[in-house]
Structure formats: C-alpha cells, structure tokens
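It would be a great kindness if you could assist me with a short task in structural biology. The matter concerns a single protein, recorded as an amino acid sequence and a row of backbone structure tokens. The record follows directly beneath this note:
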Amino acid sequence: MNQFKVGTTSTYKVDRIIDHGYVLTDGVEEVMLHINDAEEQLEVGQQVQAFLYHDKQGKIVATTYIPEIDFVRYGWVEVVDIVDDLGVFVNIGIPKHVLVSKDDLPLFRELWPYVHDQLYVCLQRDKRDRLLAKPATEDVMQQYAEPAPESLLHAPISGTVYRTNKVGSFLVTEEGYQGFIHHTERKEEPRLGQWVKGRVIDVKTVGSLNISLRPQKEEALSEDAEHIMEYLTSHDGIMFYTDKSDPEAIREQFNISKAAFKRALGTLMKQKKVKQEDGKTLLIKA
C-alpha cells in the first residue's frame, strides 16, 4: 500500500534514471520525479529533497521545487486562473497550480480574486486526499499582524484584502498592519486578494487601523458633484433627488451619505449649474 502523502517534503535517494526522469525511493516505496520537476540533473545514489503532489493523471509524483508554505506555514501566493465551478488556482512554487476551493471564497462571484491578486494561504488535503490551498482565518491573520503606530493617523496606506463581509473589508498592509474598511468608507466593495489604497482615519488601541477608501472631503466634493452631473445629463437634466430626499435613497443611488450629497449639490447650485424646483433638481443649461 502506498504510504506517500501529497503535500509532504522528505529526503529520497535516486534509485535509477529512466527516459523521462528519475525514480526516487525512501527505501521501501518508489515515486517518479519527472525531468521537468527536477531543478538540476541528478545521479544514481544521490540524496535529494522532494515535495509530493498529484499530477494531471492523479498519480503521486515528486518535484524538487519546494513550496514555502505547508500545512501549518502560511505564505502569499499569486492567483493564476479562475474556474467558476471550482474556485481559483494559485501558484505555490511547484509545476502544478493548486486549487483554492469556491467553498473558501466569497459567496458572490464578483468578489472572487482576479488573476495576479494575492492570497495568504496554507496547504490542506480534502477528503479525497487532494491537495488544496486554504486562505488564512481571522485568528491566523491576527497572529501575523504587527501593531500599528499612532503616527499613521491620516497617513496614506495600502494593503491586500484578506476577508470580505457585509459589514466591511479586512486588509493587511505590507508592514503587517491589520486594517478594517467599514462599508460606508468605500464606494465599491473590494474583492478578496485585491490591492487597495486608502488613508488611515483611526488607530485603535490594539494597534489595528480603520481605513477609508474615500478621498478627503475637498477631493470628494468635486467627485460627488461630477457624479450628480453625470446622473442629470443621462436623465434629461432632471432628477427626483434633492437636499430633502431620504438618506437611504441617496445612498442607494449615489453610494454617498446625505451630508456629502448636500455638500456637492450646494456647490453645484452656487456654481449655477443646477437648481431645485418642485421637489426636483434640474440641470441649468448654458
């Protein structure tokens, strides 16, 4: 019975050389090392460290390319392919890409990672002994994280999203600081594995950060005003939203707070680009 396990790294001896590579042995059983899986030319009797995985035919084979992650050690890996019914495949440093199951990805497909996004994962085996990559849990990320200094308040910051949910997005920076983006501090929900840029709006006593992906008020004003102008232009110069409109209706349509909407609308009225009449906002045509 084959006792070899995929995902393990051990030292083997080169028993013999064949047309397509090498036959390795642990003294009891043998495993194939294809020539493309060997980093260098090997000789009979040579001791070599190798990692075991399933090839495309489902056979256990060896490679001398050793991944930096294992079943307890996590690391950042790149997404290289997306398959809707399965999940995403990542490059762990061996010739074959490894699946991150859709069960470990966000429920909504649009929040799945894109190719070239980064995930923080370790290895695991499923019930059929197949090798998978599993994203880190919140507990793991807390162990990974470094406490952020108070001097980061109001500073620009960037990092990778490692968890998404309805309340907000969680990210970790290059320095290892943990950050949280409340859903009101973003216009669009970042996907898992996405690199985002924002600014620090609070440094918590535990050393984590609250982050906003929204621009500063001065910058946001012109952006929000432009969004309102675009809406008016595409709706024949009329919209049924005013500074008296319901805050939830404003957020649903423009994805901004009522306060931000009123500021932008006030600016446009001062610039005589819009006016309000009979419960409507009207575009003033030049």
Notes: The radius of gyration is 27 Å. Residues 140-212 form a domain with the OB fold (Dihydrolipoamide Acetyltransferase, E2P) fold (CATH 2.40.50.140). Helices lie at 138-144, 217-234, 247-254, 258-270. The chain has four domains: 9-63, 75-136, 140-212, 217-283.
